[in-house]
Amino acid sequence: MLSPFHPTNWSKAAAYWIHEIHVAFDPPVPVAPGSGGFLRRTRLGAPQVAVLVSLAFTLHCTRPPETFTARRTGLSGPPQQPGDRAFVEEGMASWYGGDDDGFSGRPTASGEIFDPDKYTCAHRTLPLGSLVEVRNLENGKRGIFRVNDRGPFIKGRILDLSRKGAEELGFSDQGTARVRIRSVDALGAPAALDPALDRMDPYVVQVAALSNPENVKALQDQLEDAFGPVTTQDALTRGGISVKRVRVGSYTNRQDAEKAAEQLAKLLKDRGVEPFITRRR
To answer: Residue limits of the SPOR domain (predicted)?
Structure first.
């Protein structure tokens, strides 16, 4: 049995109340032809209007309540790909842009000049231009940064912050810190990655960064037989050494890139090479 205070009972009560209302009007007074005009027509139509208003009110009160489904944004778990949830990842972060590493003033992967005093960062796969909130899990400090470069290319690290970013998060002196990164929008709220930005920059698998041209050529020849076209990218190490990054493939989704990386790791396991996934630029 429903409670007398249940909304359904309220609707029924309202309907009964309206049903008992009798709208009464004096009969129209005859007027001479051509007289009365607008006021006469208004008076004659008033009963019909009253009935329509009463009927609309009854329908509104007896209509079942609407239901809404809320959507949540995922804020934890393994790294997420573009979709309904924000990208989340945890790992070690480092920083670059010091006085002696030679990166200040050089072009980033996005084409802009790297300024260590801006709130930017480097990530291997996040679309260039993405915004991420970075939280230092060791002291709770956090900030919002724009991805404009690729890296870090050191095993066990997921993010390279600018010098300014490392200072903001309180680990510039120690060099590294464990962080959680999360994709956000321009207001800092959790947001999924932009699919359009994601499609513009295919995945590649970086196999090695070599300085000897003969070694680069030999590795290219070996990989092309099994994996198709192999590309190279000029780069400078932290020590200022010129190298060529040897890369395989151009994959529109990460799953295909991961399969290629596993195959490359098996093929080159005797050389101590550990391929990793990054972007074409």
So the answer is: 197-280
